[in-house]
Structures are given as C-alpha cells and as structure tokens.
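4.2 Preliminary Data

To establish feasibility before requesting continued support, the project team ran the inverse folding procedure on a target of 295 residues. The structure was first converted into the token representation described in Section 3, and no sequence information of any kind was made available to the design step. The complete token record follows.
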C-alpha cells in the first residue's frame, strides 16, 4: 500500500515536471515569433498576445520550481510535506498575470486613443494559426493529465492554454478585419485580452490564497464523512469535525462518541478502522486524527 502511494506521488510530480518543461520551450518559441511579427506589423493585439506568451514562460518556470519543492518528502520541519509550495508558486503566477494585464490594458487604450494603424500582413495570420495549433495540442495534453492528477499547477497550465486558443482566435479576427479598414478593432481586441488576463489572474490568486489561508473542507464532503462514520453502529455521534489544507490534500480532525462501557482497546480499534475508511474513500484527505469520547 505504501509503495503504491509513493508510486502515485512520484508519477504526479513527474507529469507536472513534463508539463512545465514543455510549456517553457513552446512559449519561448511563440513569444519570439509574436513579438517580432507584432512589432514589424504594428499590431497591438499581436504584441499583447506575445506578452501573454512570455507570462506563460514565467508560469511554466514557476510550475517547474513549485513542483520540485512540493515533491520533497515530509521531514521534521514539515511534518505534512511541502504540498503548499504548489499554491505559493501558483500565486506568483497569478500576480505576474495581473501585472502584465494592467500594462497591456494601458498600452491598448493608448493605441486606441492615438489611432495607431495595424499594418496588415499574412505573416500575422500565419503566426496566429501556428499559435492556435501549438496551444490546442498543449491544452489537450494537460487536460488529459488533469483527469488523472489533482494538481493546481497542471490546472493553471491547462486553463492558460485554453484561454490562449480563444485569445489568439480573437487576434486573428482583428487582423482579418483590419484588411477591410477596421483598424480600431486591433486595439479593442488588445483591451479584451487584458480584461481576460485580469479575470484569470484574480481567479487563480483566489484559489491559491484559500489554500494558503488553511481553507477547510467543503460542507458536502464533511457531511459525507459524518454519514460514512455513522454507518458503524458503534459510533453514536460525530462532532467537532475540523480540517486544514496541506497542499492539494486535507488533514481532518474529529471526535466520535462511542459506548463508554467498551474496552479502551475496542474503542481504539473502532477509531483506527474509521480513519482507514475515510482515507480510502476520499482521495483529497491525507491524514485523519480521531478523538474518542465515551458516552
């Protein structure tokens, strides 16, 4: 059982590392391509999309570093492991997204006010098509991994790739319309991209913040735990259920009420069985501590 858990843990960190490495190389390539063509053609939306790619490089780097730290085993100073590193580095990613979003919003509004014109080029269309293909492949890959591994860093990468597909499609549309004289749409798309970044950054920040602030299990899961324990006729009542996030899993502390006439050893056996059942039924729970109250 222990060997299986360790194997699953190592596989989880291995696939997350692969996601980070692929993201770094792919986004470096896309960033250089978008910035060069965007500056040459004076496309604000393409430049905005290029900066999106450089934030993706940073995000992929944070994914790799956060995953490396989180993969460390428990020690004397960190009894429940280093799982929260995933959320610390996902918060760094969210902050970088917010900073870039504000900068791009300012540049796009400035471009709209001063009526900067986009120089139409088929090179812009080619860049968009290449970007969409690359991001679609990365999105499908990370989505398949997320179904197997509950990891906020993989989730962040998947959502980022998905957003990029829609955003680059918007850039492609603005480029095509610019050929027909609708130049102002390029700046508007840049503004919309910035707004999307803001929403994504806030959402990711909130999710990371909740875990780092020791968010508890949701009420539905807590109720399921109570109902599971009450199936044992020796457990009369379950009270004082508390939980705290340790990375992507939770530590649960609760009290069970048992017959006070039972032997101490029997009461402890009931608690031990209950702890094992909870950990077996709920993948999101790392450890369970049960206090026994005789009635």
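Position-by-position output of the design step:
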């Amino acid at each position: 059982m222990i060997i299986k858990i360790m194997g699953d843990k190592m596989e989880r960190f291995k696939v997350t590392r692969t996601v980070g490495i692929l993201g770094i190389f792919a986004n470096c390539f896309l960033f250089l391509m978008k910035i060069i063509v965007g500056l040459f053609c004076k496309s604000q939306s393409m430049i905005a999309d290029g900066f999106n790619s450089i934030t993706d490089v940073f995000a992929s780097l944070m994914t790799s570093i956060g995953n490396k730290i989180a993969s460390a085993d428990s020690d004397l100073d960190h009894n429940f492991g280093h799982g929260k590193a995933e959320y610390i580095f996902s918060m760094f990613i969210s902050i970088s997204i917010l900073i870039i979003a504000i900068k791009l919003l300012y540049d796009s509004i400035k471009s709209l006010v001063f009526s900067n014109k986009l120089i139409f080029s088929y090179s812009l269309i080619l860049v968009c098509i290449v970007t969409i293909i690359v991001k679609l492949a990365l999105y499908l890959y990370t989505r398949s991994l997320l179904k197997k591994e509950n990891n906020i860093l993989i989730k962040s990468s998947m959502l980022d790739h998905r957003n990029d597909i829609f955003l680059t499609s918007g850039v492609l549309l603005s480029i095509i319309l610019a050929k027909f004289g609708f130049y102002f749409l390029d700046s508007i798309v840049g503004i919309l991209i910035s707004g999307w970044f803001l929403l994504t950054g806030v959402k990711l920040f909130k999710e990371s913040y909740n875990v780092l602030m020791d968010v508890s299990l949701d009420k539905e899961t807590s109720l399921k735990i109570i109902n599971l324990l009450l199936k044992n006729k020796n457990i009369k009542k379950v009270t004082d259920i508390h939980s705290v996030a340790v990375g992507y899993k939770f530590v649960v502390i609760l009290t069970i009420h048992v017959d006070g006439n039972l032997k101490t050893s029997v009461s402890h056996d009931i608690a031990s069985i209950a702890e094992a059942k909870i950990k077996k039924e709920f993948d999101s729970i790392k450890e369970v501590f049960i206090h026994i109250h005789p009635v």
